[in-house]
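Bug #77: duplicate submission created two jobs. Keeping one. Sequence:
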Amino acid sequence: MRRSRPPAPTPVPFSPHAAREHRVLLGLTTDQVAHALAAHGVRLLPTHVAGWENGEIRPTEDELIALGRALWCPAAELMGTTPVALRDFRVARELTQQQAASRIGMGLRGYAAAELSGRWTGDPEQSAALCEALEVSLRDLVRLQGADAELEQRVRQCLDGRWQAQLKPVSRLLPVPADTLAGVLAALQNERQATSGHWGTGNWGGPAPATGQATEAGASPVDRFWSLLARRYRGALKV
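Kept job's structure:
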């Protein structure tokens, strides 16, 4: 019985236009780029470099990182899009899986499993290290955990009940000091009580809060949560 092969990895995001543009700006030929790639451990023919620029083939993550170094630009500039998957954040930072795992403080097997599954399951300390090492924002962290719906549910429950009951569950999703999250959740509930209508209808369906604090037009509860967190959080991680 033949063993089933593991599925091929999803291609790394890559912009042929960006690669060609960087090469032309440097005044390099594809032969010179191929020579520079060899200096970074990737040996390919100039026709292979041309294939990248024509969109006929896609570079592997190692090739993309080497290409960025050959063209004197961050690999992220050759991706053509902002990172979405955990693997893409790592490649944008030009790290191997082993290097990323080491910076985060977890084993290689556990980190590799997170990339393969597409879902981050690290503890709060590892999550904070992930955000710092791979420049992942807190909002992206929630998405990488597959917890967007849970956070939205917690925020809405905060508005309908006691915010204190949602503090611990939200703290499990975000490596943010508890007092900061408590202030955000309390402010959300206070703003909700100060309005007479529903959220997400221009000015949340009613007049401005009695405190005089303005709210964003058309903001949903979870959008307002992120807005308040960005204003109150004083840590090093990106919101």
